[in-house]
Amino acid sequence: MILEQGQKLDFLLGAMSPCGFAGYFDQMLAPRDGWNSLLIKAGPGCGKSTMMAKIAQHLASEGETVELIHCSSDPDSLDGVFCFAKKFSIVDATAPHTLEPRYPVAGETVVSLYDFLDEEKLRPARDAVGELFDRCSSLQERACRYITAAGSLIDDSYKLAAAASDLGTARAFAARLALKYFPAGHRDAEGGESLRMLSANTLSGPLCYTETISKVADTIVMLMDPCGAVSSAMLRVLRDQALARGLRTITCYCPMAPHDKIDHLLLPGAKLAFVTDNQYHPLSFAGARRIHCDRFCDKARLRAHRGRLRFNHKAAVDLLEQASRLQAQAKQHHDQLETYYKSAADFEQIDRVTERILRRYC
User: Fold this and answer.
1) Residue 244 and residue 233: Cα distance in Å, rounded?
2) pLDDT tens-digit profile of 37-55?
3) Global pTM?
């Protein structure tokens, strides 16, 4: 990655979606040759996020570029850290993104912090702890139902727009964009594709890590597309072209369609980004090229569905707001849960584990 040294790039590896929690945490398993991948196992409040933040800060202070993987339920907390220069990654391997090593020790190493919990302090609180876990789970499930409902409306608008668009012409235009913007003859030493998200519905509402785009790219092409049907078709062509040319490609999917709809494409080695601007993640970058995707649409057909599209958007926003309120309630119960585990954790021992990781891998 040709980036300024010491940068921190903010991403998500998963989020609540219409199909439940969806993510790409399995990328941490069976890493490429030479990588060290650590899977942390611990209870809530036992210092997983703090450990990863310390490691990220150390790497950045040494001049390395690191990817900070944030928790979509609580973006102030970390779920993981990547450092491509060091071929190192560390991730929270507990629910809702539970991971087990595919090739234990040979491929991934489990870092268990459970041994540093005082069982005698937790056992008397068993009923309270169980009730809080159950409340968190129930609230997250309710939030997911609202997100599922919002997703069905967003998908309805997507299909309306797709039916009114000339996607073949849009794909041909995307192929010409690749010829214009992709550097001729350039191949990244660390090629291949990484799957990420830049946005999610969180306890504080919609979130999008726009600064990551600015840090990665000098040249930004914005696809202005309210429903995302045209932009997603174009981005898939650009993705395929980038991978065929050996460019390191960060493909960022939409959390409302986490396996189908591409929102953004980042090409760090080429200092290039193609991003989607819409009502759910409005973007603004000085000097960016703006492509209005309605040029590929039958505007008369879209106008005929204007009322339905407006209803879908307003109702989806209301549903996502309700989901955020439920996520915030779940966070309150999770914070109470953490107090029990913090009181039982031996943080001096956990700090020693952090120091051993820093000496060995960083």
Assistant:
1) 17
2) 999 999 999 999 999 999 9
3) 0.94
